């Protein structure tokens, strides 16, 4: 494949594939992906500052990937021919963007990156085929990801006969996962967004122990949840504002649900029945 046809982030991701990375190394990898257009020109100290790790951690990260040190990794990144994105804070006319405008532009870029990745639907189809037959289907999302899980579960319940939302942690979470497994669940969908709650990892461990397949929608391929996932579907979040924005993960969730509809017997009939019921009850004003 011509590397010009591959998104810059995807070219970097290929360098990290097949390596078991520590949490600190995942942060470095994520930082490099976030700054794909500038990574080839940043020093190890600058990368360390951006990723919030020590400079020796960056060196160890490069060596984990099989390089002699960070300079060798940076040389490899330069050879990928990534476009320079240093001017992303300006428009084509050179107008300086405000903080909020940059945040919106970042989300647009995140969605464009997601659109490019959807040229290959293999992972999404695999995820849909794991989730669709699960009866019930537990949907897990805690803290920042709770809203994503709740929104997805709301719509999924229109086409899936038994969706169970798990949006609270604590000692009951493992119980509810076990109960779902005992009731016949075979898979679980998880939304994992930063910052990752420790109890989310406990929940995923419980799901694996219960024999459930785990599909995770996370902000990047190096999220801690990846090691406990049978299928990991990455979609970047925006980090320009005080609180992260998650348009791309939401969109990816809807794409997954759209794909699942074809795998759920009677899904269309169930949706039509809901619409008829809603109309007869005057449920909506439009």
Automatic annotation (TrEMBL):
Coiled coil location: none
Q: Which InterPro entries match?
A: HTH_RpiR, RpiR-like
Which PANTHER family does the annotation name?
A: GLUCOKINASE (PTHR30514), RPIR-FAMILY TRANSCRIPTIONAL REGULATOR (PTHR30514:SF18)
Q: Locate the HTH rpiR-type domain: which residues?
A: 8-84
Report the domain of life of the source organism.
Bacteria
Name the UniProt record assigns to this protein: MurR/RpiR family transcriptional regulator
Q: Pfam families under this entry? A: HTH_6
């Amino acid at each position: 494949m011509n590397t010009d046809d591959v998104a810059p982030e995807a070219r970097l991701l290929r360098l990290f594939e097949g390596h078991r990375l520590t949490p600190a190394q995942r942060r470095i990898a994520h930082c490099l992906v976030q700054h794909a257009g500038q990574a080839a020109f940043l020093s190890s100290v600058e990368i360390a500052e951006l990723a919030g790790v020590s400079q020796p951690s960056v060196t160890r990260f490069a060596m984990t990937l099989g390089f002699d040190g960070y300079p060798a990794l940076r040389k490899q990144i330069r050879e990928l021919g990534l476009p320079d994105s240093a001017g992303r804070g300006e428009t084509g006319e050179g107008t300086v963007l405000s903080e909020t405008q940059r945040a919106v532009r970042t989300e647009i870029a995140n969605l464009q990156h997601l659109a490019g990745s959807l040229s290959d639907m293999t992972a999404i189809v695999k995820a849909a085929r794991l989730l669709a037959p699960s009866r019930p289907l537990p949907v897990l999302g805690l803290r920042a990801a709770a809203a994503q899980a709740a929104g997805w579960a709301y719509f999924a319940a229109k086409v899936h006969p038994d969706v169970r939302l798990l949006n609270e942690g604590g000692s009951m979470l493992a119980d509810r996962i076990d109960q779902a497994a005992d009731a016949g669940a075979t898979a679980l969908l998880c939304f994992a967004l930063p910052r990752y709650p420790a109890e989310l990892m406990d929940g995923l461990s419980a799901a694996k122990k219960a024999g459930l397949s785990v599909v995770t929608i996370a902000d990047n391929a190096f999220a801690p949840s990846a090691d406990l996932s049978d299928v990991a579907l990455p979609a970047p979040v925006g980090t320009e504002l005080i609180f992260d924005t998650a348009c791309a993960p939401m969109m990816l969730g809807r794409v997954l649900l759209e794909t699942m509809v074809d795998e759920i017997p009677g899904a269309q009939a169930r949706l039509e029945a809901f619409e008829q019921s809603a109309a007869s009850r005057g449920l909506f004003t439009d």
